[in-house]
Predict the structure of histidine kinase.
Amino acid sequence: SMLLYMPEQGTQELKKIAHAVNHLSSLLAEQERWRQILMEDLGHELRTPLSIVGSQLEALVDGVFDLEPERLRTMLDDISRLTRLVQDMEKILQADGAIFELLQERMDLVPLLKQVLYLLQPIFEDKDIQVTLTTPKKPCPVLIDVDKMIQVFVNLLSNAAKFSEPKGKVNVCIELGVVGETISIHIQDNGIGIPQNEIDKIFERFYRVDRSRSRDTGGSGLGLTIAKRLVEAHKGTISVRSQEGSGSTFSVTLPLART
Ligand code: ADP
């Protein structure tokens, strides 16, 4: 180690710099760790569908079975899943970078959510799902990276549609915190819900409740992980309450922008 000469009047300044450097290096270390785990998980996720497709193709080449359309369709399904994984992977890497570069601007949450709901209208209409939006009378200013928050809400809202039966109901409610420092967005569905013992796990990477059932909903289990990281990058929180069979409510809480 080195012994540095520190002039007395500069000590405070140096301490501040040292603190900032330490903080930055622990952020980098955390990101590095996260990347490593991500790569391990990804390898694990890719291996299974790849080896299934591989062995099916081998069997075809060896003439073990005939080229039935059904078999080809299964392989195509596996390949689509691989493609989605890679796309989600790109998204999660972007979200990762977001922690260091949020392009924040001040805006009101109400028009933003109206815009997102408009964007998603087709997926709700597809299942004949009724959507309501409840907003406070007061302004709802937040400091956000618009594209990234849109990604969060698109994610939560499309999940609400995905895991609901046709003719379901989705209620979006914007609520100002009692103390006046936060604002929450609750997205409530009356869909299939999440079993109590799985609730803690759904924000984990690649986690999906009952994989065989979720398979046809076309996700890869990264959506909520990305949403959580993006919300936390905004110094917010995301949580869920759910009852299996009667529905789920996802809540995002963000700091209110000062007026
Ligand atoms: P994906 O939707 O791609 O499967 P997510 O990370 O968005 O991945 O969600 C992870 C899992 O959490 C889903 O597979 C599903 O089992 C569960 N889930 C998420 N949102 C809901 C919801 N609104 N209702 C019921 N289950 C949900």
